[in-house]
Amino acid sequence: MVDDAIVVMENISRHLELGMKPFAAALKGAQEIGFTVFSISMSLIAVFIPILMMGGIVGRLFREFAVTLSTAILVSMVVSLTTTPQCARICSRRRRKKSTAECTAGARRFSRGYWRAIAAA
User: Fold this and answer.
1) 8-11 contact pairs (CB < 8 A, 24+)
2) What's the pLDDT tens digit per position in 25-48?
């Protein structure tokens, strides 16, 4: 269920990296990916409809399972399309922007440490 929010956050981050302001990036990012998140969520819910309609003892056992997962998927969709863009907008203003040189230096240090660990093993 978290994957919906991750997809929305990645799209918003992409717009922020392109230089958009946080509010515009959140709005455009959610608009661009909104239908995709909606269709994925509805497809997942459609999988649980046959389980919900099952009869007998097995149907009784799995009914709560189907209802719980369908509800969780709906809530995840709503949160990822409403709350996640606003949180991304607020958090992007507060974080310190790192320059490309700082990010490259950090990646270089990580790579050196990784290769040292490989050589030591």
Assistant:
1) 8/33, 8/37, 8/80, 8/81, 8/84, 8/85, 8/88, 9/84, 9/88
2) 889 999 999 999 999 999 999 999
